[in-house]
Design goal:
5-stranded parallel β-sheet, carbohydrate derivative binding, isomerase activity
Length: 391
């Protein structure tokens, strides 16, 4: 797909999605530049929140719907280990949960920073989540990380004093149905903001994942070899932040194939507790391998176990070369100068999952740019009724 001409991709109904997957390494470098420019203003805003906070720690609630929720799911494990945990408690809650059951997730007396992730900023749940948080919480602040400067959330931030907006690169506002660059750029933006690792090291992480992303593009043929196998099901596994990433990886398959390929996601250890029964001889199993040496053991153990079962159509380890590696098939990045922590490794890994999804979409004769021609699902969700909330 990455070597086809624009005309060839248009005929396949895949020009937009292919382009938007392929441009991500460039967008990550742009995201770093945007953060550098806004760094002082962001830090000043966070200092205001800290100064006005009541209680021991500030709740940082990452929220969004669908892929935008999975940004938070990917971030929280990494930030629990690498964020400022003396100041913040990090949580990920979908807007769909916040809006449906506010009293179970939002608390009046707890100082809260609601971090809203949104590609368009126009989803009804995203707007309602902000309104409900304002109504429920005495000391509420907002950080809006969005891809669309003309979206409702972005426009609101311009006149709300308790709302700071950070835009992703312009091209991250995906035109395609599936969120690709929007997901990875919003994730990276939040990492740069909340990761307490020194800036020079974070910048080096960004340069590394950009090289790894380019590697995915150059090695598409290896991914195509995986997709050429006979399968009807896909499993994604991982641990830590890469466990959160499995939700987004499996969603890309569901979206781009319009549900023609069945999917399951789970943590590497959790997979044994029932979901493993999903595996048959028509199943591909992918595990995002963590670079934490201790965690990595559990990722590799389940892969070796599934391999010994001799049932799956294909079993693949995705990641960097470490001290211990999978004995079977793997997509191992050549980039070894830095063994990335899982929060950043997730961005290189998701490019592989996105490529798996688009190649699978073509395989099942779907059109990735318009995978749901019936309109069952839409780029910006429709049909949502937001009911009046009474505190």
């Amino acid at each position: 797909m990455f070597t086809l001409t624009k005309e060839e991709l248009i005929r396949k109904g895949a020009e937009i999605t292919t382009r938007e997957i392929k441009q991500q390494p460039e967008l990550w470098e742009e995201t770093l530049e945007i953060y550098q420019t806004a760094k002082k203003d962001i830090e000043d805003y966070l200092e205001v929140i800290k100064k006005n906070a009541s209680g021991n720690r500030i709740r940082v609630v990452f929220t969004g719907a669908g892929t935008s929720q999975y940004v938070g799911d990917t971030l929280v494990p990494y930030l629990n280990a690498n964020g400022d945990n003396s100041t913040y408690i990090f949580q990920s809650v979908g807007t769909t949960d916040l809006v449906a059951s506010p009293s179970e997730y939002l608390f009046e007396e707890e100082s809260t920073l609601l971090v809203s992730f949104a590609r368009s900023g126009n989803s009804p749940e995203s707007i309602a989540a902000v309104d409900i948080a304002n109504a429920m919480i005495k000391n509420i602040y907002h950080l809006t990380i969005t891809c669309a400067s003309d979206g409702t959330l972005a426009q609101r931030s311009e006149y709300e004093p308790n709302n700071f907006m950070l835009l992703t690169p312009k091209r991250a506002n995906d035109d395609g149905f599936a969120m690709t660059g929007s997901f990875s750029c919003m994730t990276l933006s939040a990492l740069l903001i909340f990761d307490t690792t020194e800036f020079t090291k974070k910048a080096n992480y960004v340069h590394t994942i950009s090289h790894m992303g380019q590697e995915v593009i150059k090695r598409e043929a290896e991914i195509q070899d995986m997709i050429d196998r006979d399968f009807e099901r896909i499993v994604y596994l991982g641990s830590g932040s890469l466990s959160g990433l499995t939700r987004e990886a499996q969603l890309k398959i569901l979206e781009l194939t319009a549900g023609k390929i069945a999917t399951v996601f789970d943590s590497s250890m959790g997979f044994r507790h029932g979901p493993k029964s999903f595996v048959n001889n028509q199943t591909l199993v992918f595990d995002f391998i963590n670079n934490n040496q201790y965690t990595r053991e559990y990722d590799l153990d389940i892969l070796e176990e599934v391999k010994e079962d001799e049932i799956a159509a294909g079993i693949f380890a995705i990641g960097q070369i470490g001290e211990r590696n999978f004995s079977g098939d793997q997509f191992s990045f050549y980039e070894r100068t830095t063994l990335l922590p899982d929060g950043y490794l997730a961005l290189a890994d998701i490019m592989i999952a996105q490529t798996v999804a688009i190649l699978t979409s073509i395989k099942v004769n779907n059109t990735p740019d318009t995978p749901s021609p019936s309109g069952t699902v839409n780029r910006v969700v429709k049909g949502v009724t937001i009911h009046e909330f009474k505190k």
